[in-house]
TrEMBL record:
It comes from uncultured Chloroflexia bacterium. This is Fibronectin type-III domain-containing protein. SMART domains: FN3. Gene3D superfamilies: Glucose Permease (Domain IIA), Immunoglobulins. Residues 551-642 form the Fibronectin type-III domain.
Amino acid sequence: MRPLGRIIVYGGMMAALVYPTIGAPSASPEAAASGAFSTTPQEPVPPSRIDIPYGEDDAAIIAAMPDLDLPAIMQAESPHELPRLNFTNAVAHGAAPASDVTEVHEIVSELALPDTLLLWSGDWFGTKLRRAAQDMGVKLSPEQLVALESMAVARSVNTRMLLTLAKLKDAPARYRDRQSWLKWLYLETSRVRDALRPYEATAQPSIRFRDGRVATMAAQTRNAPSWALTTSLGAGKTIDETGASVARFSLLYADVFGPPTKTEAQAPASAPFLYKPYNVALTGRGYYDHTYPSVDNGGWPNVPGMRNYLNQSNVNYDTHDGDDLWMPYGSPVYAPVGGSILWTDGQAVLIGYDSNSYHIYIGHLSRRDVNTGAFVNRGQMIGLSGHATVDHIHFEVRHNGKQIDTMGWYGGGNDPCPGGPAPAARYLGCEPSVWLWADEGPPNSSDTTPPTGTITSPGDRTQTSDPAFTVTADASDNASGVNRVEFYGLYDGSWHTLCTDSTAPYSCAWNADSIADQAIVFTIHVVDNAGNRAMDPGGYRTVQFGRVLTPPRGLSITDTSDGSISLGWQDVEGEDGYHVYSGVWDGSNWFFVRVASLPANTTSFTDGPLSCDASYAYQVTSFRGQGESTRGESTVGKTDACGLGPVPRAYLPLIAR
């Protein structure tokens, strides 16, 4: 067994303690430091910073963590008040043999996972979440469920994802005492926050598995949920075990909450909707930081400094993810909207608005007058203001789980959050902010609003064998007008400028004859006549380009037992191999995941162990390089009647190519 690396703890009583993993000597600090993330302490050092190689086992990390105080996590005012789990590459980039390296998308298969999977809980709190836990078979004590909800709220992480991970890892049973359970929750939510943080454009994070294999995440095409799932489910596991766990995660999640691939993000509100939660004169305030609004970032060095909504830097305070409204202790606090009380604790409330796409968090209350499950009207008193460093309340709004500034951005150019020099370097935990206060107008400004736009063709996640592409886009600007639309393509591992069009309708003709079969990612930038630039305003469009590849024909069930189903099909010409997909019925559709990748010339496969007396659907594709055929035919098989009792479903590991 190869070592995964070592855990290094800085700060406090645990300074300089080293926790080696079981096995051969750990990789040297020099090798780890030469990767994308430095393991060298940065000043100022938080009370406890723990450097953790990607792939380290959960139990080893939890053993190295200091004790946690949940109220302190809920009320944290600074990143230095929280322990920082600093995830690092377990092996220097390029140091592992090429035969041992694969890409994360090979493990996560074809799952196109949206950011809402990591961040948005909707209304899954309280009784609704408890029932979901029962449906999933997660045995949580009431105290464990309360801690899970509170940690999810504090760190803006999807309660449903945490619950599914808890089931897969048997975490409630493994970490029964309060401290170990809090540490496990903090570890999993830290992996989510790490997946969202800014990465340098040239960074290529890597995880080393227990069998020595290495998986990397290409910075230009990063998918935060895929990386978070891989680092969580790959902790202390082999690459094959990780692939099987990812497939199992998708099925568990789909069975209770719906497919994890479903994009649940909702459009922003069409007009301001917030009303002041106070009726006293404010004595001061702390502003939302547009450079990196995340109190758990630990002062990440590539986005330093404070920038409020007017681009002022001489204000409170760096890393703040909301507004601090300074008012006398004990002042009445009112509901800023009408909505449901999704969650409460002793000092805070979470209000859901607009189909719960907006979560409004109000903290530092000295008294709370509403309970979970209640509906409040706008202007209804919900409690009294409290104290944390100074007398104030913390007011934070999240949309689709992402942080936003209620006062928008009026500092010129594009909102720095999300920002960065390239798509890879962006902080994925926030959305561009707009003015949300209905009882007060925004500040006077010239044209500082970026234009809008989106790619209209080709469609996302489509396939083509034609090398002649025509990319079209819509763009608009409500003030100075659109100046130009710039078209970009990601292929052969880097971004390329394809063309620029200054006249509507905007389009770009480009030919892929000179490149190999691969996935091509298209995006646009829109620039208005005031110089405001909207980067990737409509997201990305991924097209699988490949010279014609046909799916296998004659797919059929050749044999069944009470624990397996055997398939057969006809071989095709020119393939590198086959992907086998298995589906379960979610009540309205078959939900498919890849369960096996097979070598060329294979014409059969046996899936198992499976539950007895159960139906499964199958599809088989052929692949060559990065290209994959359409799925073509489907067939449904049913296992034989139960003999010795049902066998839990265990998906075969995905084979990394």
